[in-house]
Amino acid sequence: MLEVTDLHAGYGAFQVLQGVSIAVGPGEIVAVLGANGVGKTTLNRALSGLIAARQGRVRFAGDDITGLDSSDIVARGLIHVPEGRKIFADLSVRDNLLLGAYRRASSTRAANLARVLDIFPRLAERLGQRAGTMSGGEQQMLAIGRGLMSEPRLLILDEPSLGLSPLLTEQLFNLIGRLHDSGLAILLVEQNVVQSLAIAGRAYVLEHGQVTLSGDATQIAADPRLKSAYLGL
Asked: Quick one: which of 71, 91, 146, 155 is 20 to 30 A from 233 by CA?
């Protein structure tokens, strides 16, 4: 479904990604792991068209999407839930969710809203509440719910557990598992190594903008290089 080949990207004179190649198959959960500053968010931004690739190719569902505008990438069903949630704090929960269907799935907006509220009953209780007044966990629910409103074919989750309590993190990973069970392909970009590898089928480890480990998640979890060299565990 997603095939990234020799991707280079960065900001100004600063080169962040240096030849990254990853793939996500239909219905897979694939984890991208690494410490702060190794290029995980830059990878996500390049995949979703928020920054331009300097070299390499991104193919989605068989089509080359390298260089497409981010709104066109959304229209194809590649949906990015960004790090830090990026909700519209002054808008209501309802309006935040409805904006998720602005570029894609507008004709099925009502049905998708009902589905999202079934997945997140807490949001149903707060539809009229200003989004910025909710807790961090509730805002993360809203960010994921907004992404689901677009009927994603592949969902990129960028650091979804960031800032959440251990209990909320556990609930979040349970939710990711349920989304996967529904057939949704997920690219999970995280620092939470243990839970990410427990839920993913395959994984990649980034270091200094390059993939330094890749393969079956169970094998990577047991690889001493993951603990000693890359994540300091």
From this structure: 155
Mean pLDDT value across residues 7-35: 94
Indicate the pTM of the whole model: 0.92
Other beta carbons within 10 angstroms of residue 137's beta carbon come to 17
Across the range 43-65, mean pLDDT stands at 95
**Domain 2-77+153-230: top CATH class:** alpha beta
Give residue 216's identity as a one-letter amino acid code.
D
Domain ranges (residues) in the chain: 2-77+153-230, 89-150
User: Angle between the 166-181 and 136-148 helix axes, to the nearest 10 degrees?
Assistant: 10
Pick from 76, 83, 75, 93: which is nearest to 40 by CA?
Answer: 83
Strand partners, 7: 20
Of 195, 125, 183, 175, nearest in space to 154 by CA: 183
Per-residue DSSP letter, 2: E
